[in-house]
Amino acid sequence: WRHQLPSGVAVTCVDVSESNRSNTPIWAAGTSQNKVLIGSFDNLTIREIDLGKNQPMAVEFSQNGDKILIAGRNGHLSIHALADLREEKNFSSEFTKAVYEACWSADGSKIAAVSWELTGEEVPVLGFVKVIDAGTGKCIHKIGLDGHPASSVQIAQKMDRIYTGTWGCKPTTVIPQKSI
Fold this sequence. Notes:
This protein has strands at residues 11-17, 26-31, 35-40, 46-50, 56-61, 67-72, 76-81, 87-90, 101-104, 110-118, 125-133, 139-144, 150-155, 162-166, 172-174.
């Protein structure tokens, strides 16, 4: 199975979910045209979420496959329902720069997202990870990493640590003082 995008359109991120109501694997792909395409491997139907001026950097399905988390270049972070593609939550007010990756916790109650900010200090950039309550949108943790934009994140299955990476090629294991 293969889907051909129009000439000049690049895929910026991708995820696959095998857990959804139809029990058929579905895929999501962010594109350079500021859209997230969502399709099924068993037919050619493709739906899309238009993000306006925001290019998607990461997409991730929820554990049960009924929602999709979208992170984007303009500080965008949102949750969309797969049933009708409507935006359920928007956490973009938490970020001023690109959100390069985001992920769900194992139980779906938390989101970890990585970004960066200007510091106005000797080291002008600080990469960080934020842990956000998926229900309330409240920032639970903000953890500074190093003087480079943070680029990757995963929450451990037991939710006791966060794994991150930055443009400075520095993989980091973060163990928050409070539980995730």
